[in-house]
Amino acid sequence: MPGFGDPNARVIVLGLAPGAHGSNRTGRPFTGDASGNFMYPVLHEIGFASQPLATDLNDGMVLKDLYITAAVRCAPPDNKPLPSELANCAPYLDREFRGLKKAKVVVALGKIAFDAYLSHLKQLGIIERRRAFLFQHGAKYKILDGRTLLASYHPSNQNTQTGKLTRAMFMQVFKEARRLADE
Fold this sequence. Notes:
Layout: E1 4-5, E2 11-15, H1 23-26, H2 34-46, E3 66-70, H3 83-99, E4 105-109, H4 111-123, E5 140-142, E6 148-152, H5 157-161, H6 167-182
Parallel strand pairs: 2-3, 2-4, 4-6
Antiparallel strand pairs: 1-3, 5-6
Helix pairs in contact: 2-6
C-alpha cells in the first residue's frame, strides 16, 4: 500500500504496516481502524489533518504538511513482519523518503518502524550503527542528514486501551513534530 499525504510535507509519520481490518480494507494508512481513530483527532487538533475522522478513501481527508507511510506494504500475519518482508519493502520506503525532499521530522510509530528508519539511514551511510539509538516513547534524535527522528509508541488498540499510550503522550510527540518542522 502506498503512503498518503502532502508531497511537500515537512513531517513524515512512519507506521508498521497496513492494518488487516483497517487500511488493508480501505486502501489508506490508518483509516477505518482503532489506530486511526486514535491518531487522526490528534493530527486534526494540531493542524496536520483536515478532519478528525478517517473512514474511507472518499471521506475528504486531506493532510497538510504531513505524509504517512509504512515500513511494510502489506498486512503481515499477527502484525509481526518477518525480516524478509521488511527487506523486500525497504526499496519502496527508500524511494518515498527520497521523494519527500522537504521533510525535517520523521515520527516513528513503534519499535519496528523506528528500526526500519534506522536501517534506511544505515543503508544510506548516514549512521554507522543502529545500536546508538534507543527506542523509547518521546525519544528525539538529531540525524546527520538534518532531519530529526521522534519515537512514539504505536497507537494500536493494545497500547491505547491499556494506557501505555495516552492521548496526552501522543499529542506531545506531534506538538514537538510541529515545533521542529516550523524551526
